[in-house]
Amino acid sequence: MHYLPLTPQDEQEILKKLGVSSFQELLDAIIPKELQHHQKIQLPPAVSEHEIRNILKQLAGKNLTSTDHITFLGAGIYDHYIPSIVDTIISRSEFYTAYTPYQAEVSQGTLQSIFEYQTVICELTGMDVANASMYDGGSALAEACHMANDITGKAKVILSELIHPFYQQVVKTYTQECCVELVQCPSKNGLTDLNALKDLLDNETSCICIQHPNFYGFLEAMPDIEKMVHDRGALLVSVVDPLSLGVVKPPGEYNADIVVGEGQAMGIPQSFGGPLLGIFAAKMDYVRKLPGRIVGETTDIDGKRGYVLTLQTREQHIRREKATSNICTNEALCALSSLIYLCSLGKQGMVDVANLCVSKSHYLYDKIKELKHIKPAYEQEFFKEFIVETEKPTHEVIDKLLEYKIFGGVPLSMFDEKLKHYMLIAVTEKRSKEEIDTYIDSLAKIL
């Protein structure tokens, strides 16, 4: 990166052009004085570039990473293997500097990659149509609720209690000024309570939102839920872990109407919790109600294949009252990462990764059942994640595990203070038998 210094002379020339004598005068013109809070920043003395690099390396070295630690963290962000081809391809300048493809004639490469991303998402979910991606799983779910209300003309949304708490907060924020009635369906034994759901369903319900696998990692009874929902004329919104679809029946096969999910597990690093990728797919009947943008395939005047943005039902493009969303962009580079990931694995590779997650997580689950002072909280079918109960508060257990260089899990007390003895454990295909055994041995010593 080039360093462009600004000298005092440059600053004076800029201020002169702006017609002010000082930077403070510029601030006074645009910010009311009562909103200006001046506080001196206690910066250390200036040092050379070489010295600052060393300081930054020391600071970065304080981070605990999955390179140095064995990680069993989950709750929406997972430590899956990313093939080297993913970073190699997205690091090409034509991809990572690509601008939003408003001008189709100069954006064919970007449009084609998005079109192919949409295609693989449809194949993965068993749905008819997918959009060019959303910001993340939470915003995708919120948009799905708006879409369902628009389709049905109703305003009651039922959220399973076992949808990710952060997703529920996003939905609450999105809908709080839109005359939407949000109702939470309680859970029972780690699954959505179907009797409670039946009682909550009425003729004013627009959609039921179910996470499958749910936040605790367990598999919901989607065929039973689907029948219950559609019998009352509501829509079924399924929140999925895309990697689970290597072994779990895709939502298209149990007649889901809208499918959303978080795509981070497909070739996107954990980083510090972002950027992420919101997956969004639906039945073709609802294609004109989809939020965001969709890329379509067409032919030009010479009969050559080409790609265009189409069905952009956003307030930027059509009359505001007809807009279905205010989502103004998509996570194109993250979507490309997931596309490359899925293409490099192929259909059998997806099945293999999913099976490894199942077998390794169940191996750990069975080993935990042999320990004292810790036990699985529920006996339910799960994919790669499950909840355990400990006699000690889980934050104490997790802190102790750090001494063994293990990220032991996510304490559920961070979502609900009443769950201070529960934690969520995720096991991906990256965890070896030796690592899992080390985790078990460490737990035994701590407990």
From TrEMBL:
Q: Which Gene3D superfamilies match?
A: Aspartate Aminotransferase, domain 1 (3.90.1150.10), Type I PLP-dependent aspartate aminotransferase-like (Major domain) (3.40.640.10)
Question: Which EC numbers does the record give?
Answer: 1.4.4.2
Question: InterPro entries of this UniProt entry?
Answer: GcvPA, GDC-P_N, GDC_P, PyrdxlP-dep_Trfase, PyrdxlP-dep_Trfase_major, PyrdxlP-dep_Trfase_small
Q: Domain Glycine cleavage system P-protein N-terminal: where?
A: 2-441
Entry-linked Pfam families: GDC-P (PF02347)
* GO BP terms in the entry: glycine decarboxylation via glycine cleavage system; nucleoside metabolic process
- Enzyme class, broadest EC rank: oxidoreductase
Q: What family does this chain come from, according to its entry? A: Belongs to the GcvP family. N-terminal subunit subfamily.
What name does the UniProt record give this protein?
Answer: Probable glycine dehydrogenase (decarboxylating) subunit 1
Native species of this protein? candidate division TA06 bacterium DG_78
